[in-house]
Fold:
Amino acid sequence: MGAEKRTSSRPELWVVAAWALVACEFGLAIYLGLKQPGGGPVLVYTIGPPLLVGCALLLGAAGAVWSFFHRPFGSSQRLIAFCMLGFVIASASYPLPFPSYREGRPTAVAMHLPFRGEWTVAWDGLDEDINYVQRTRPDRRFGFTFVIARDGVTRAKLDDPHTAFAFDAEVLAPCDATVARVVGDLPDAGPDVRDDVGNHVVLEIAPGEFAFLCNLRQGSVAVKPGEHVARGQVLARVGWSAFSPLMAEPHLALYAQDTPDLRAGQSIPLYFHDYFIGEQHVERGVPRGAGFFIGRAPQGERVHAQP
Structure:
């Protein structure tokens, strides 16, 4: 009886590991909350939560097997450990926005709309309630996605994404910049493309600040790395070289980050200057999106540049 009591009061190894896992999650949260520059937070944010969830599931399974063969199954230390593992799984699975060190510190570069004519904002760069997918992307948390809508639809034929009105539209430089990177040979294959960036042009708009213009048409890129471009210069045309379930048709994506390397940087907020929402002139602002759903009229703001 005494030996059994001493054994039951001693913390079991998997229970100690559960406490350690909770401590790791709190440590990860504190580190990300510091909002440090560099690639460390990107790496931790990207692999940390999935790793915590995987470890919690494995540890919970091991604890259940151990408890089944070493009764009583529902001892207090075991129940507490199972609750802690459940907490780790639930909290680490929740899609919290990436804590960019540039949050609240937008680029000082005066960005302009990268197109001619009227476009609709599908997803915008600052509204976390609407932009719930991009907010979990360290590189494009503050990114924008644009489509062309006419009479409430974005395609000439609903069943043919290639008839999207945005397809083959000109993409313009949003500011004076230097071309840092170009990819232009990927096919406009839509769902057959396993990439959500596709053909793209990367512009160095300021030291340590790079603008990405993505989903460009194959063979349409008209600039080269190292070339200086002026605001309004034609860079390429919209294609369908990128694909994601939420943007399953040609569109234009624009975002800024602190490195020219794909998926390796932290997103930078940006504001557009001197544009119109209908007839209302906006000197500096963030056009708002309202989501994008195939078959439904896009509800985001319709914007165009100075006539």
The chain has two domains: 2-93, 119-305.
